[in-house]
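P.,

For your records, the input lines for the assembly:
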Amino acid sequence: MPNRVVVFLKVLVHIACLAPIAWLLVHLFQNNLGPDPTHTVTFFTGHGTLRLLVITLAITPVRRLTPKLGWIIRFRRMLGLYAFFYGCLHLMTYVWLYAGFSLSAMVDDISQRKFITAGLAAWLLMVPLALTSTAWSIRKLGGRNWARLHWLTYAAAIAGIIHYWWGVKQGDRSPMEITVVLCLALAARPVLAWVRS
Amino acid sequence: MLIRKSDSNSIPSSEITPRSTYLNRRTLLTAGAVGAAALAADRFGRVMHPHDVRAETKLATVSSPLSTKGLTPTSLYDITHYNNFYEFGTGKDDPAKYAGSLKTRPWSVKVEGLVKSKKTYDIDSLMKLRPLEDRIYRFRCVEAWSMVIPWVGYSLSEFIKACDPLPSAKYIQFISLDNPSEEPGINSVNLDWPYSEGLRMDEAMHPLTLLTFGLYGDALPNQDGAPVRVVVPWKYGYKSAKSIVKVRFVDKQPHTTWNDMASDEYGFYSNVNPNVDHPRWSQKTERVIGAPIWKQRQPTLMFNGYANQVASLYTGMDLRKYH
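Structure tokens returned:
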């Protein structure tokens, strides 16, 4: 894939990741995010995080299945960083709109409510990944160690999905779609390895 | 003849923004937003496209001293497009989309159990049993959001007196319509249908407990529990059963749908109480529906602000244990 095309596609990915945030901000200031804007923003940023994480995890299996698409590895870092960015917005939504910046409210929630604990764990697992996303970090850690560290992406995605299931009411199956897609991405690596052996 | 007395503190229906005016406003906003929305996911497009609010039947009403003073009602649009009514699906906008298939005429309410004689009330005669009153109440959902709703109805106690229950009746149970051909959620949502709710007899006899037929001066829109529901303003919303077909007087605490589903999360009493958290979130505060995002959060009041009227019903009870 020529460099020029990759650069062009990267611009498109940036637009695709940032445009929803622009949409959200415009409607937020117009107070046009539905009857419960807090809820809308919460699910918008939460879904965004999970979708980007799952796309990031799908890149390697897709490359293995279709060697022609090897070049998509060049998008993995930016997608992972956007997942972290959406995760930060989701966390800020909680800190501002739910906890009202009150430290004691946050401590209460984290210690008493397992769905919040799971969500925080998912975000914390993404922090070292975002911090070591530079080429310098890969050199410093060595490729193998760096790759091992970045297996945490799986843990972050699993914690995020658990957070989603624990957060919704019984009888509400809305987390099902993203769960199925994540399971496919998780199963792809061992299945592909087994098929090739 | 019913003469409508004006009450300086309550908000007459005439002063509330007419439906056509705000729907026009929303259409304008929607038109302006369409370009920006093109990139957004489908499901977020939904929040901007109002479903039509069905024209309703105007009801003759009188004012009531039991109406809560000093509150600004939530818009009719939000009251009719942000509903938990699982008979039509779990999404907040599902009832607005699918409740059109609910047939509210003919409709009858069966009275059974511990009564002198079993009766069946036709909905139109039930609506004429007592004068219909305008009652503005706070409405607090267990999910930590709230509205202010101008209901229309009369005290449930009036209906109970007409039913003539036996002294052995200690509780009252409400059964909602269970008809999958009119209620698509019945087949897709995993709850134990029909929806069942209940109150202790003294709670049911409290004058604030409203047998409800309308809101905003009109007959109830389908998605809000047409044609008849109860409203218990000091309890979480799911206690206020919708589209009632059966009222049963019983001597033991009746089973209730959400309590069956998860008793640690949804108690039988379910009184609004900022000091007893839901296992998954705090009940200290609530999100005001329709408020801008930066002003949505407000403190939740004990018994949803009706402590003066109802706290005495629970004297000596451990409200944490009997949550």
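Two observations worth noting. The longest helix of chain B spans residues 19-37. The radius of gyration of chain B is 19 Å.

Regards
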